[in-house]
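Quick one before lunch.
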Amino acid sequence: MPRTSRIQGLRDLTVEARRKSVAEAAGVDPESIAAFDPAHGLGLGHADHMIENVAGILGVPLGIATNFVVNRAEVLVPMATEEASVVAAASNAAKIARVHGGFTTSSTAPVMQAQVQIVGVADPEAGRVRLLEAREELIALANAQDERLVEFGGGVRDIAVRLVSSRVGTYVVAHLQVDVRDAMGANAVNTMAEAVAGRAADIAGGRPLLRILTNKADLRLCRARAVFDAATLGGAEVVDDIIHAAALAEADPYRAATHNKGIMNGVSAVVLATGNDTRAVEAGAHSHAISESGRYTSLSRFERDSDGNVVATLELPMPVGLVGGATKVHPAAQAALTLLGVRTAAELAEIITAVGLAQNFAAVRALATEGIQRGHMALHARNIATTVGATAEEVPAVVARIIADKKVHADHAERVLADLRAGR
Ligand SMILES: CC(C)(COP(=O)([O-])OP(=O)([O-])OC[C@H]1O[C@@H](n2cnc3c(N)ncnc32)[C@H](O)[C@@H]1OP(=O)([O-])[O-])[C@@H](O)C(=O)NCCC(=O)NCCSC(=O)C[C@@](C)(O)CC(=O)[O-]
Ligand SMILES: NC(=O)C1=CN([C@@H]2O[C@H](COP(=O)(O)OP(=O)(O)OC[C@H]3O[C@@H](n4cnc5c(N)ncnc54)[C@H](OP(=O)(O)O)[C@@H]3O)[C@@H](O)[C@H]2O)C=CC1
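Model of the 3-hydroxy-3-methylglutaryl-coenzyme A complex:
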């Protein structure tokens, strides 16, 4: 069966049947994603070697977003999140995007930057020039720290030197710009920065202090683009309102924060599912959301094209890896990468960016039409029913009643559950 991400009715299956259906649709052995089941997932033994003082494991729901087409390839996307309606929303937007071919993505080379702060330089302008004169020596010294990375085609691409004025003086800050290939790259570039710091400080005429990567990974950018069909959305007025909603986010930091949170609902769920560093990706994204005038703004842009459809675009740093960090040691993260069928970190990064754009569009479409609550709370109602003690068998009836009563609250769910159990 050709690989497809269009699985209708996936929501109506049991968890086990869903996993089987997803494996079949993705064309992978069901055993290769068995680790999605906690019984075959991260064990305490593994966990005890990942972080310190391990006392247990926190499970996070892992859902599969459907309908995605990215660069003409069908993709089923694992999303780890505690928030209801996120997986549904991403699937919904991906379904609408299919009408015009899904998502098109692109990315720069996987270049991460490490900073070396040099303090006490009497002549910082000259210190900067002296460091640039020593470019080849410093590159060779840095590359010598990770010969295998260089063998993979990675390694230092360039050195930049910035002068940063602070309240207590001007710092000479050297940036190592390193192609880290299929790694997220933090450990790799931090090792290089520590190795060159002493020599760089001697050349600059100061003392080395901070040697650490920057999470403002703006040399490692990903872009996603998709067209959302006006007729499918409900016509020109809906398109106008979606454009208005996005324009507010572009102009107003208060709205931009929530608009971007919507993007990160999708991004962080896939970053987490693949064992990558969510904090690094989020720090990079929000540091990138600064306009030319210095104002915090939205990361995505929505425009009306010549056919009256919505064209949505997103660009953000995406420092994720296929090797390194938890990705290699977490069985469920390995299963997620198998399901995604990605061969390089860039392919993973681009799919994540497409999911962020899908999530963002679904939210803004809902907000600009019916509001967020109908869709979101209908799915959140299941959490509320479970919270008040409904069994799996009782949840559907409790959900139906609290939605029908338009009272999706725990206290009403408790009354409904009591009535159901009393046969009322
Ligand atoms: C929730 C929907 C999708 C319902 O929307 P709907 O139109 O009632 O859904 P539908 O039943 O017509 O289904 C349409 C498609 O959505 C998916 N879908 C639909 N329901 C399910 C489900 N139960 N399980 C799995 N998939 C589901 C599924 O793909 C389905 O098509 P199919 O593939 O079946 O042919 C819609 O209202 C929506 O997209 N809402 C946006 C919700 C959202 O953004 N949630 C994120 C949390 S809110 C937040 O934190 C972000 C925010 C809002 O603050 C960001 C911002 O402010 O910008
Ligand atoms: N501020 C931040 O964001 C920070 C993040 N971190 C953490 O660092 C971790 C990520 O760092 P990272 O350097 O990726 O981790 P690793 O050092 O674990 O992985 C990178 C290493 O993987 C090996 N490797 C094998 N195949 C490849 C390939 N195809 N491409 C590239 N490298 C390959 C290389 O090591 P070899 O040459 O030995 O084979 C490379 O140095 C994350 O867990 C993150 O949380 C740490 C500090 C700060």
